[in-house]
């Protein structure tokens, strides 16, 4: 049997009705009046609405939920020619689902329609199963994503907790390390301070010892100087006493004074005058030579240049070194003469 059977086209009937279809089957149609759909639609629906129709492949397929029957008001509306075939297929599919145990002697066209409806139903079931599988897969993926999200959140929470614990431990270790460093610094500072105090005490002790030694030395030197001074005084006193003893026996010097008498220097006794000295310097006294400053030399040279020299008018007298009369020498000589 071919996929699409041939159709006979009578004068009064539709081209979609196969030949040899009995017309007396209209009495077996149930439901609403289908005269408005034409003879072709009736020929398609007449074996389906019989109670004894049964599909050969229904025993192998699982029963599906039956859809609701079409509304009754659709029977009163006359469909267009383009929608007749689609409506017939829908009605056939619905009737096949309602009465799976009906068996008829179908024509080639009817068998093709039934097979086509069955294929469409199978395709719809496959599509529905596929959509359901896709939906289940999508739901499973969503559940998997949700589980992964929850697991990731739990891991993140655990990681944050571990990180927080690690940071807490690190902070405690850092704080303990800082405390240890502070304690070590404080200990070092105390040791340095104690060492400085010890050194200061040693220095102070040494300084006091040095001061005591210095005072002792000064005291010893003072006592030594005092003893030396006493010894000198004692010796001086002894010398003085010796001198006193020997001075009584020595002749006293004559207190002479000098004067001019008749143009001559003569000596005479004067108790109020001092005795003649026993020693005198034979070299006469000379003044110390001090060179004049440079400014005075310049001024003198300028003056000499401005004024003519008048030294030729006057005769320069030579410097005569006159020895002054020394009364002491005269007195001493007279004393020796006496």
From TrEMBL:
<feature type="region of interest" description="Disordered">
    <location>
        <begin position="160"/>
        <end position="338"/>
    </location>
</feature>
<protein>
    <submittedName>
        <fullName>Coiled-coil domain containing 34</fullName>
    </submittedName>
</protein>
<dbReference type="Pfam" id="PF13904">
    <property type="entry name" value="CCDC34"/>
</dbReference>
<feature type="compositionally biased region" description="Polar residues">
    <location>
        <begin position="254"/>
        <end position="264"/>
    </location>
</feature>
<dbReference type="InterPro" id="IPR045323">
    <property type="entry name" value="CCDC34"/>
</dbReference>
<feature type="domain" description="Coiled-coil">
    <location>
        <begin position="106"/>
        <end position="285"/>
    </location>
</feature>
<feature type="region of interest" description="Disordered">
    <location>
        <begin position="1"/>
        <end position="88"/>
    </location>
</feature>
<feature type="compositionally biased region" description="Basic and acidic residues">
    <location>
        <begin position="208"/>
        <end position="252"/>
    </location>
</feature>
<dbReference type="InterPro" id="IPR025259">
    <property type="entry name" value="CCDC34/181"/>
</dbReference>
<feature type="compositionally biased region" description="Polar residues">
    <location>
        <begin position="329"/>
        <end position="338"/>
    </location>
</feature>
<feature type="compositionally biased region" description="Basic and acidic residues">
    <location>
        <begin position="160"/>
        <end position="196"/>
    </location>
</feature>
């Amino acid at each position: 049997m071919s996929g699409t059977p041939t159709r006979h086209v009578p004068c009064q009937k539709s081209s979609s009705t196969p030949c040899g279809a009995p017309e007396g089957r209209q009495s077996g149609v149930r439901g609403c009046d289908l005269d408005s759909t034409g003879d072709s639609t009736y020929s398609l629906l007449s074996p389906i609405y019989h109670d004894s129709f049964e599909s050969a492949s229904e025993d192998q397929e699982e029963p599906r939920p039956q859809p609701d029957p079409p509304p009754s008001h659709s029977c009163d509306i006359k469909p267009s020619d383009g929608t007749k075939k689609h409506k017939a297929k829908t009605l056939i599919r619905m009737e096949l689902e309602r009465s799976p145990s009906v068996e008829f002697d179908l024509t080639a066209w009817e068998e093709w329609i039934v097979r086509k409806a069955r294929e469409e139903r199978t395709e719809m079931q496959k599509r529905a199963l596929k959509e359901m599988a896709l939906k289940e897969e999508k739901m499973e993926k969503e559940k998997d994503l949700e589980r992964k999200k929850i697991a990731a959140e739990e891991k993140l929470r655990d990681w944050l907790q571990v990180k927080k614990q690690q940071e807490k431990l690190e902070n405690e270790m850092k704080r303990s390390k800082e405390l240890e460093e502070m304690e070590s610094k404080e200990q070092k500072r105390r040791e340095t301070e104690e060492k400085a105090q010890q050194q200061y005490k040693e220095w102070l002790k040494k300084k006091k010892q040095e001061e005591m030694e210095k005072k002792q030395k000064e005291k010893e030197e003072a006592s030594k100087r005092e003893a030396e001074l006493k010894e000198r005084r004692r010796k001086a006193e002894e010398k003085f006493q010796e001198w006193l003893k020997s001075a009584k026996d020595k002749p006293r010097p004559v207190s002479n004074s000098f004067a001019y008498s008749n143009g001559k220097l003569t000596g005479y006794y004067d108790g109020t005058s001092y005795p003649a000295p026993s020693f005198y310097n034979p070299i006469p006294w000379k003044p110390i030579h001090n060179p004049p400053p440079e400014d005075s030399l310049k001024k003198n040279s300028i003056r000499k240049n401005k004024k003519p020299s008048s030294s030729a008018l006057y005769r320069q007298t030579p410097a005569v070194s006159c020895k002054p009369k020394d009364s002491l020498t005269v007195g001493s000589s007279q004393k020796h003469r006496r």
